Every structure is written in C-alpha cells, then in structure tokens.
Amino acid sequence: MDIGMLVDTHCHPTDSSVVNLSKSTASMYAICAMSTHIEDQIKVEELHGVHPDVVRPYYGFHPWWSHIYTFTEGIGKKEHYEALFLNGKKEDIKLQQIDALLDALPSPIHFQILLDDVERRLQRNARAQVGEVGIDKVFRVKGKDGKLTLLQTSIEHQKRVAVEQIKLAKKYNRVVSMHSVSATQGSMDIIRDAAYQKIVLHSCGIGKNGIDYCQRQFPGVHIGFSTAINTRSMKVLEDSIAVTRLDRILSESDLPVETEYANAVESIVEIIARVKNKSRSEIVHYIKSNFDKLF
Ligand SMILES: [Zn+2]
Fold first, then answer.
1. What pLDDT, on the 0 to 100 scale, is given for residue 23?
2. How far is the CA of 99 from the centre of ligand 1 (A)?
3. Rounded average pLDDT over 5-26
4. Which residues span the domain enclosing 196?
5. C-alpha 65 to ligand 1 mean position (Å)
6. CATH of the domain at 207
C-alpha cells in the first residue's frame, strides 16, 4: 500500500513519552491527533506546528475527565462530586467513596473556561477540529489505591459536556471525533441534541443495529474502525463493517505510539477490504475520498 494514501482519523500521539513523528508516519496522507484533557491541548498544538500538513489537530475534552468540570458558578467541591456521582440517589457506599477520595479530587473547573479555550483554538486555526468528546458508560473513577471505585459520572453531565463542545464544532463547521462506549442511545441523543452530523464515531463499537439506526437517522455521520479496539470481537467488527456505507467508512489506529500508525491503518484496511469484497487499494481510495469530503 502507498503510505502517502493512508489516513489515521483517530490517534493519540501526545500520550507517548516522545511527541514527534518519524519520517514514515510524517509521509502518511493525514493523522488526526486527539486532545483529551487540560494538559494535552498544547502538546497537540505543538505537534501540529511541527507537521502542519499531515497532523490535523483536535481540541477537546474526553468523557473520562468530565467529572472535574462544572456548569455551576461557585459550587463547592463536595456538593459538585456528590451531585455528579450520586445523581440524585442516596447510596451509602458511593457516599463513603466520595468522602475518602474528596481531598485527592481537584476543585471543579467551570467548563465555560475550557470551551472558551477550544473556541480560541478553532478561531486561530482553520485546520483545528473538535475531539475527543463523547460518552462512556463503563468508565469508573479510580480510588487512592488505584482500584476502580463505583463512582461514575452521570450520563446527563457527560452528555452536556459533549453537546457543548459539538455546538462549537457546528459554529465553526469543524469535524468532531466522538467516543462512545456502551452508550449507543446516549450517543444518538448527543448527535440529535447538538443537531450536527459532521461527526466521526471513532473505534465504533455500537454494533450493526446501532450503525444501521445511526445511518438512517444521521446520514452525515461517519464511522471509524481500528484494530486496537474493534478486533476485540471479530464477529461484531465484521458485521459492523458489512452494514457501514462505503462513502462513510474511515480507518484509524487509536494508538499512542506513532510508529505503529501506518501498520495499524493497513491492517484495518485489510479487514474492511475482505468484508466488503474489494481490493485494499479500492478501500484506501474510498477512505481517502471520505476524509477529503469531510474537511
Ligand atoms: Zn481516543
């Protein structure tokens, strides 16, 4: 495969210890570098500065950190975390876990500050996009001992954090890379609430029925697949690829180590080619043209 034709629509190069691109990765057609939390937005911006043509910079806030954001001015720390983690229910074990963790949790940050930051980056750079945003029903906060607690951020809060970011993408007509884990309905709600379809469901795990529904409801939404996440169940992946329209399909690595991007994209292209009964170069062309149309 011609490396200059390969597209990685979702990766995390700034999660690696050395943030740069090797020659071969820099010769790919494009890589979409995600931001996820407060510290990595600047790293993505710097990487894009070094490789402005190949790196599409994505700015945004991932649902795994959404519990540290608030929409309420001046809310107390305890009040904030109890509201998000208890979600109106009185559960003693969760209350104990919140109390035990409270001093280690950061004071809540008003999300408007972060939205303003994303907006400035979108205004400054026409190539900037929005991501990684989304919803995750499985994620739980770790305790001081490193073990998972029962604490999960309310779905309503996660949705709001995602929708506010997608509205910014809509305002500036940018692409959104969206994370969705065990929350097919929630993800569809987000797309509907934001009233925007320039969205890529990345490492899409919503299954063939979910994809089928999504394509009927939101024909503009694109579907990305990676071997890193999606080969956990080959059956689900193959069924998902089979129902995904060729003019909406995308390839991604979803990996931190940049030297693996081209190989990872090649291997998902190979699976797509097999399921779609096309040659690998045909699939590469479809993906590249889907990518070009999206931007
Ligand atoms: Zn990701």
1. 95
2. 30
3. 93
4. 3-63+111-141+153-294
5. 13
6. 3.20.20.140
Q: Would you state the pLDDT for residue 293?
A: 96
Report CA(88)–ligand 1 centroid distance (Å): 30
Best CA proximity match to 200, nearest among 140, 253, 130: 130
Residue 107 alpha carbon to ligand 1 centre in Å: 25
Tell me the pTM. 0.95
Question: In 10 A of CB 206, how many CB atoms?
Answer: 22
- pLDDT number for residue 100: 93
> In sequence order, what are the residues at sequence separation of 6 or more whose Cβ sits closer than 8 angstroms to the Cβ of residue 4?
27, 28, 29
Average pLDDT in the 249-269 region? 97
Measured in angstroms, how far is the CA atom of residue 25 from the centroid of ligand 1?
A: 18
Distance in Å, CA 77 to ligand 1 centroid:
28
